[in-house]
Automatic annotation (TrEMBL):
Protein's name according to its UniProt entry: N-acetyltransferase
UniProt KW Transmembrane helix keyword: no
Domain N-acetyltransferase: 11-98
Pfam families per UniProt: Acetyltransf_CG (PF14542)
Organism the protein comes from: Nocardioides iriomotensis
Keywords, ordered alphabetically: Transferase
Gene Ontology terms for molecular function: transferase activity
């Protein structure tokens, strides 16, 4: 359950270069990206107006950035204002950003 909303699912659609959020089987948002050899460039995030404020954009950002971290082969260039702002509010993701110092946190 996400912010009181049940049945939200986020998947990576690599063919379309986007992460897609569905709610009760209906697409309600996406985070678009482009790939380079070294970067995942987030270009646009969109959530249906009727779903604003439900945390879907935040869930998309977290899922996408967790996926980039898990893959480990690229850094993030957040051209999308939403993704950039989300990272700004979540310092534990700043180490993924291209040009940011690599994390020195100890496990």
């Amino acid at each position: 359950m996400l912010g009181g909303v049940a049945d939200i699912e986020i998947v990576k659609d690599a063919d379309a270069h986007r992460y897609v959020a569905t709610l009760d089987g209906e697409r309600v948002g996406f985070a678009q990206y482009q790939l380079t050899d070294e970067l995942v460039v987030f270009t646009h995030t969109e959530v249906e107006d009727r779903c604003e404020g439900l945390g879907i954009g935040s869930a998309l950002a977290r899922f996408a950035l967790d996926d980039v971290r898990a893959d480990g082969s690229r850094r993030v260039l957040p051209l999308c204002p939403f993704i950039k702002g989300w990272i700004g509010h979540h310092p534990d993701y700043r180490d993924l950003v291209y040009g940011a110092p690599l994390s020195t946190a100890k496990d």
